[in-house]
Design goal:
Blueprint (H helix, E strand, L loop, with lengths): L2 H16 L14 E12 L17 H10 L1 E3 L1 H4 L9 E9 L4 E6 L4 E7 L11 E4 L1 H10 L1 H17 L7 H13 L3
Antiparallel strand pairs: 1-3, 2-6, 3-4, 4-5, 5-6
Length: 186
């Protein structure tokens, strides 16, 4: 594991420890999490847009799941619907087991869009309907970690525009340098 990943993991754990152990949805308290299992660290859907983000660059971690449980806020299907909101088409999937035996299946996008389904200990669906959440702090955190991946997506998109004649030759490099310079300002 590289030093930067160790530092990021340590910083994430330090931030998580500084906040009270309460989940945003009272049905899923952080203090009762027994196990987090990442079932699909990186999954692409029909909504994947490589001009925005390549799903191979997005990997869901246990820290992402715990962070989401802490800050997710429930929204309606209308507010979650991919046709009406920004989506990357990239999603990590996890199963969170609570001490009471309840299992929460979560699909988490780097944009902070979260879908959940609840199961009993035998993996049979409970009577609780699927829920949809937004997590703005999750989006800000994950997108900051994905800055390089976003730059690569910009580069792919601008080079394609240049090849198609939508922007003048050499303009892609100028725009990329400008974006990187502006993106590194505090």
């Amino acid at each position: 594991m590289s030093k930067s990943r160790i530092f990021i993991a340590a910083a994430t754990l330090a931030v998580a420890a500084a906040f009270p152990a309460q989940a945003a949805d009272g049905r899923y308290p952080i203090a009762y999490v027994q196990k987090v299992e990442i079932t699909h660290p990186s999954h692409r859907s029909a909504w994947e847009n490589k001009d925005f983000l390549n799903c191979d660059d997005v990997v869901l971690t246990e820290e992402d799941v715990l962070y989401a449980l802490r800050y997710m806020r429930r929204v309606s299907w209308k507010d979650y619907d991919p046709e009406n909101t920004d989506t990357t088409g990239c999603e990590g999937k996890a199963l969170v087991t609570f001490k009471n035996g309840r299992i929460l299946a979560m699909g988490i996008e780097p944009t902070g869009r979260i879908s959940t389904g609840e199961f009993d200990a035998g993996m049979k669906p409970t009577t609780s309907p699927p829920n949809f959440y937004e997590c703005d702090p999750c989006r800000k955190r994950k997108m900051a970690l994905l800055k390089d991946a976003l730059y690569r997506a910009d580069e792919r998109r601008l080079k394609r525009f240049e090849a198609e004649g939508k922007i003048p030759p050499g303009e892609a490099e100028v725009r990329l340098r400008k974006a990187r310079t502006e993106g590194n300002k505090p």
